[in-house]
Every structure is written in C-alpha cells, then in structure tokens.
C-alpha cells in the first residue's frame, strides 16, 4: 500500500461522517414516528406502504454493503486494515457475526460506527489508518446515495401525494417531508464532495460552487417529485404502472451502457436496478462516452414526462378543492425544472472548479465535470477505492484518454485499499 496515493483524513471528513450518522438516525426516527401515527389513526394502507419503503430500502442497502464486504475481503492488506483496533467487529473471526448483522439490517449502521471510530482515531489521536478511514467514507457516501433514493425520495413523494389527495396535512407529515428533503439534500452535497476527492483539482471546490451544484440538483429533483405526487393524487392506480414502465426502460438503458460498477454479475444487475430508480428522479452519468448527448436525451424525456403528468393532473383534478394551490403549482413546477437546467448550465460555465485550471480542460464533452485522467491518476484512484474512483471517472470525465481506461481496467484485479 502506498500512502502517497491517498488524500489525508481531515476534521471535515470526520464532521461529514458524524452528520451523516445523525441524518441517518433522524431519518429512521421520523419514519418510525410517521408509521406509528398512521397505525394509531387506522391508516393501515399508508402504514403498510411506508413500512414497505423502509424495508425495501434497508434490504437494498444491506445487499450493497454485503457485496462490497465480500469484494473487499479479496483485496490486499484487508486483514491489516480491518483489525479490531480499526473496525468494530473487524477481522475474519467476526465474519459470521458480520453476516448476521446484515441479515438483521444492521450492517449499514455498523459501517457508520466503524467509520466514526476509525476517523476519530486518525484525526484526533493521530493514529495510522488515514487510508482506510478515507476508504470507508467513500463507501458510506455511495450507500447514503442509494438509501436516499430508495427511501427518502419515494417517501417524500408519498407524503406529498397524501397531502394533495386529502387536501390536509398533519404535523408529522410536515416533519417527515422536511426529514426526507434534508436527507436528500445532505446526500447530494456529501456524494458530490466524495466524488470530487478523486479529482486532481479537488482543493479548488469552494462553498459557492458546491452551493450552486446543490441548488440545480434540488431544482431538478423537486419538480419531478411534485409532478409524480400530483399525478398520483388523481390517478393513484396508474402511478405504479408509470413507474414500472419507466424504470424497466431505464434499467435497460443502463444495461445498454454496459455499466461495470460491481465485481459480480448479480451485483451489477442490482446496481443497474438502482440506477434505473435514481434516473426516475435524477440524472447522473455512469459510463464513459458521449454523456452530453445522453444528458440532453434524458432531460428532454423527463421534461416531456413532467409536462404529461402535470397536464393529466390538471384535467382530472377537483377544481374546487385544488383552487388555492393549483395555479401556483402549474406554474412553479415547470419553472423550477427550467431554473434547474439553467443553473446546471451556469455551474459548468461559471462555477465549476476545473474552470480555474485550464490544463485540466482536455475533454470537450463535459456533462458533470471537466477533469482529465492520466494513466498514473487512474492507477492511483483504483488503489484508493476502485468503486468510487471508477464512478468519479465516469461521472466527471466521460471521455478519458483511452490509455487511462485500459490501464485502470488492468489494475482492477490487484486493487488494494
């Protein structure tokens, strides 16, 4: 293991990890509170739907965590980095127990606790292990992304649907909506920051640039969620069909792009299924190639779909009950989406960190970043965390030099922490 290939673990990394745990616990607590309120009020259907979201999300996240745990056991230096001093229940002697923790839906939580322990030792006590602390934070960032789009975004859509359908809202629903929105917002910032750490110019990522990045993502996701909730409020029997048809098409699109995020065929299909779910609400690039064209196709399709959902809601709505907010939503949803697209364009033309470094602007097709990857950088990234490194390479540099891609691929089988 070469320590020089890793970024140092800082107090900000530790802060993000702690806040991530707090956000996770707050989100779970609010979910349980909402479920309890539904149950006590006799709304057993909504209780079942909400619990279903929670269980499905937890199972998916645990599956990803377990897949990665199995992959990592094959890497060099795994035993040295995962001793009991570094990781809670670390080492091969706790393998069966760690397996049961995932079965009991506690594997994700113990990843958070282990990351806090390792991060505290590295940052506060100045112990060795910065490499593995950084490695764990990258995996947690991706897991939080998956958890947010599997639970927080669908739950937010459900809460809005109930409000629109019943034309009333309880305090607990407002709390749940705020918790879900906060979880998604923090995920966007945390995930963006984690991917940025794989780029040579990450030090130039300022708070202003991050704020604009956060805003355009929020403005693109929020109108989509509201449009789906409005459609569901008038045609609830068709929203599941709408989701399944689009999700199946998006999963097929991910398959056609030949994603290579996981180390097994089963894991890769699970990843593509989650990509389809995320694409239902938001866009991100997952493979190299002409992503600008793919992004234009995606946003054009989603804009048309949002328009269809809004028109359908307007035609089938109750004019009397929806009078106080119908006109405002009809104008705000498309305007919000357009504003998000404009902010996205503004980000890449004015606020992107790479604009400050002309030497990194080698690729002209830059949908989500402009960093160029050299063969040496690709090898270094693979040593750090090949899952997130590969995703960052696709996300920020969709057309890297051909030599870098081949070199990175050759080194996947010998990656270390």
TrEMBL record:
Name under which the protein is recorded: XK-related protein
PANTHER family (alphabetical): XK-RELATED PROTEIN, XK-RELATED PROTEIN 8
Protein's GO biological process: apoptotic process involved in development; engulfment of apoptotic cell; phosphatidylserine exposure on apoptotic cell surface
Family under the similarity heading: Belongs to the XK family.
Cellular component GO terms, alphabetical: plasma membrane
Membrane disposition: Multi-pass membrane protein
Pfam families referenced in this protein's UniProt entry, alphabetically: XK-related
Keywords: Apoptosis, Cell membrane, Membrane, Transmembrane, Transmembrane helix
Key word tRNA processing present: no
């Amino acid at each position: 293991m070469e320590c020089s290939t890793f970024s140092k673990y800082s107090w900000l990394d530790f802060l993000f990890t702690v806040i991530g745990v707090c956000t996770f616990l707050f989100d779970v607590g609010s979910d349980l509170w909402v479920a309890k309120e539904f149950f006590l009020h006799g709304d057993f259907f909504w209780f079942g739907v909400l619990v279903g979201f929670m269980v499905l999300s937890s199972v998916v996240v645990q599956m990803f965590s377990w897949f990665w745990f199995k992959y990592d056991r094959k890497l060099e230096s795994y035993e040295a980095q995962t001793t009991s001093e570094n990781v809670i229940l670390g080492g091969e002697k706790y393998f069966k127990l760690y397996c049961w923790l995932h079965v009991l839906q506690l594997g994700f939580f113990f990843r958070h606790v282990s990351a806090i322990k390792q991060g505290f030792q590295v940052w506060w006590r100045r112990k060795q292990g910065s490499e593995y602390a950084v490695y764990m934070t990258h995996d947690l960032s991706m897991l939080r992304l998956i958890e947010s789009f599997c639970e927080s975004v669908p739950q937010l859509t459900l809460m809005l649907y109930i409000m629109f359908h019943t034309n009333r809202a309880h305090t607990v629903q407002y709390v749940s909506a705020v918790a879900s929105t906060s979880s998604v917002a923090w995920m966007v910032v945390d995930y963006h920051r984690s991917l940025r750490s794989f780029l040579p110019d990450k030090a130039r990522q300022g708070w202003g640039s991050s704020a604009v990045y956060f805003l355009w993502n929020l403005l693109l996701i929020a109108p989509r969620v509201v449009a789906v909730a409005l459609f569901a409020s008038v045609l609830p029997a068709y929203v599941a069909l709408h989701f399944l048809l689009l999700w199946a098409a998006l999963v097929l699109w991910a398959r056609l792009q030949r994603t290579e995020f996981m180390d097994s065929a089963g894991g890769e299909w699970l990843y593509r299924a989650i990509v389809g779910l995320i694409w239902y609400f938001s866009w991100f690039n997952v493979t190299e190639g002409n992503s600008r064209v793919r992004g234009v196709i995606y946003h054009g399709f989603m804009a048309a779909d949002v328009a269809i959902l809004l028109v359908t809601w307007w035609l089938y709505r109750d004019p009397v009950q929806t009078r106080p907010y119908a006109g405002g939503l009809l104008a705000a949803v498309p305007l919000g989406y357009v504003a998000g697209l404009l902010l996205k364009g503004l980000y890449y033309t004015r606020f992107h960190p790479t604009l400050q470094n002309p030497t990194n602007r080698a690729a002209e097709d830059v949908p989500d970043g402009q960093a160029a990857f050299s063969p040496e950088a690709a090898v270094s990234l693979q040593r750090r965390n090949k899952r997130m490194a590969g995703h960052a390479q696709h996300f920020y540099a969709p057309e890297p030099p051909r030599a870098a891609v081949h070199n990175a691929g050759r080194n996947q089988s010998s990656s270390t922490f």
